[in-house]
UniProtKB/TrEMBL annotation:
SUPFAM superfamilies: P-loop containing nucleoside triphosphate hydrolases. It comes from Crenobacter luteus. Gene3D superfamilies: P-loop containing nucleotide triphosphate hydrolases. It comes from the Bacteria. It holds the Pfam family AAA_31. This is Chromosome partitioning protein.
Length: 265
């Protein structure tokens, strides 16, 4: 079975994309799944957040995209997370422009991943906060998209723009792409606005909205500065419980258990 490839995207900045990639990956690894994360953001927050030093990289996703190396040659292990990482650093900032001149610029990540897709159960792609060529490479390589969102006033407008882009991707570049799920992040249940936007979200996206909600939790914000997913930083925090629940919800949605035969008594 080849991996389920999921892009984590929202062109709005600071909504919890990277936090979700790192902690969902660690949650899935804790459930015994083989996981790879791909950092497509030159900020390299996902790379650093799982304990990989972006300044010490030999090869990175940039070299894969410009066809200077294979995915396997650039992989590193997140010891604190229990998964593999195709890391990024500042080199990636120029890739958008460099790739414009190159052949198959939108499908490069997808083609590169073919080599490793049987090595993993899940591949999570951290997209930058823009609908640029990196994000498009993510969408073309992916089976589906996880959309983290903060329940703020303009959030739904942002989702409409993202949906338009996904429709175009589906038409021109990747007919199988679908929305995997919409994840409410940085959630503050005591705020009326959070609750109202949450209701609207359910109206629009129905059961695509994950039951699991990620609360605002300071431990989640602290963990990356130690290069650790939340489980290796404070596993009893509310943030850790939420991401563990998300990993379990995702697995139960994607890996429906084989129904046991009823006992013929
Ligand atoms: P960007 O668009 O810049 O890539 P992003 O969508 O990847 O941002 P994150 O980097 O995951 O968002 O989160 C933005 C900031 O909010 C970070 O400082 C992160 O540590 C913090 N943060 C994310 N989720 C939570 C949470 N549930 N509770 C508290 N802080 C959080
Ligand atoms: Mg990010």
């Amino acid at each position: 079975m080849s991996a389920r490839v999921m892009a984590v995207a929202n062109q709005k900045g600071g909504v919890g994309k990277t936090t979700t990639v790192v902690n969902l990956a660690a949650g899935l690894a804790q459930l015994g799944r083989r996981v790879l994360i791909i950092d497509l953001d030159p900020q390299a927050n996902a790379t650093m957040g799982c304990g990989v030093d972006k300044h010490a990289l030999g090869r990175s996703v940039y070299h894969v995209l410009i066809d200077e190396c294979e995915v396997r040659e650039a992989l590193v292990r997140s010891e604190t997370g229990g998964f593999d990482v195709l890391p990024a650093n500042r080199d990636l900032a120029g890739a958008d422009v460099e790739l414009v001149e190159m052949m198959a610029r939108e499908t490069r990540l997808k083609m590169a991943l073919a080599e490793v897709e049987n090595d993993y159960d899940y591949i999570l792609i951290d997209c930058p906060p823009a609908l640029n060529l990196m994000t498009i490479n993510g969408f073309v390589a992916a089976d589906s998209v996880i959309i983290p969102m903060q329940c703020e006033y303009f959030a739904l407008e942002g989702l409409a723009e993202l949906s338009t882009t996904l429709r175009k991707i589906k038409k021109w570049l990747n007919p199988k792409i679908e929305i995997e799920g919409v994840l409410r992040t940085l959630f503050e249940p005591q705020r009326l606005l959070s609750v109202q936007v949450s209701e609207q979200l359910k109206k629009h996206y129905g059961d695509k909205v994950y039951d699991t909600v990620i609360p605002r939790n300071v431990r989640l914000a602290e963990a990356p500065s130690y290069g650790r997913p939340i489980f290796a930083y404070d596993k009893s925090s509310r943030g850790a419980k939420a991401y563990a629940a998300l990993a379990a919800e995702l697995v139960s949605r994607l890996e429906p258990a084989v129904q046991p035969q009823s006992d013929p008594v």
